[in-house]
Amino acid sequence: METKIKVENLNFYYGNNRALSNINMDIYKNKITAFIGPSGCGKSTFLRTINRMNEFIENTRVEGKILIDGEDIYSKKVDPVELRRRVGMVFQRPNPFPKTIYENIVYGLKKNGVKNKEILNEVVDTTLKSVALYEEVKDKIHKSALELSGGQQQRLCIARTIAMQPDVILFDEPTSALDPISTMKIEELLLELKNDYTIIIVTHSMQQAARISDYTAFFLNGEVIEFDETNKIFSNPRDKRTEDYITGRFG
Ligand code: ADP
């Protein structure tokens, strides 16, 4: 098993409020790692430290290290824009641009100066296929993305992320705004995508974590209480607090 992301003694502050305390974790390549825990325990904050999205929030501070492929992502040598290409992110609410399906997918590439129509067409086809959306939308690629259903929009947002050739993809509660069938399709998709990407998912659904993740981290009050193989977390947790949470005693 290969470590893709190594987190060392990570603390995170919003002003004087410490939202993450002394996080240490290895996140493995081509696995799905789930973050679970009650609302406000720091899951999203931690996710956003991994692609430096927290830097958009004023008056925040990081201590400690996050290494991706051995490189400290907070070092001065790292360009945060390039980092966010390598570490893509998909959000809770599908957020396609008010543009065509095609333009949504090629948006980032065009911004990076890719103009060749053949290359762009190829990327649109392959990414739509890899998110299992191609058959559903092949006749309306030049129609507005906003005409798609919520579940289709979310798969399009995943396609848009993949088009940038990331190697890590962060998902922040990607199915909480979706119906059960769309949720199932996204879960199946994540299981496919882990062959090519390292996946981290914040989820409020323990069932979802149990269904799709290989590793689970249980957060409480900004700390990682327990991190282990998902089947161990759900069948034989070491910590009483994890057990109380997964059996529904709080949260
Ligand atoms: P979770 O994802 O587990 O629900 P969050 O990471 O959103 O938790 O929040 C962790 C803590 O950080 C909470 O106390 C929350 O109020 C605080 N927090 C989150 N976002 C901000 C922000 N933009 N500014 C200030 N505090 C924040």
TrEMBL record:
Gene Ontology cellular-component terms listed: plasma membrane
Keyword hit for Cell inner membrane: no
Localisation per UniProt entry: Cell inner membrane
Main location: membrane
GO MF term set: ATP binding; ATP hydrolysis activity; phosphate transmembrane transporter activity
Coiled-coil stretches noted in the UniProt entry, renumbered to this chain: none
Signal peptide segment: none
Stored SMART domains: AAA
GO BP terms, alphabetized: phosphate ion transmembrane transport
Membrane topology category: Peripheral membrane protein
Task performed by this protein: Part of the ABC transporter complex PstSACB involved in phosphate import. Responsible for energy coupling to the transport system.
Protein name: Phosphate ABC transporter ATP-binding protein, PhoT family
Annotated source species: Caloramator quimbayensis
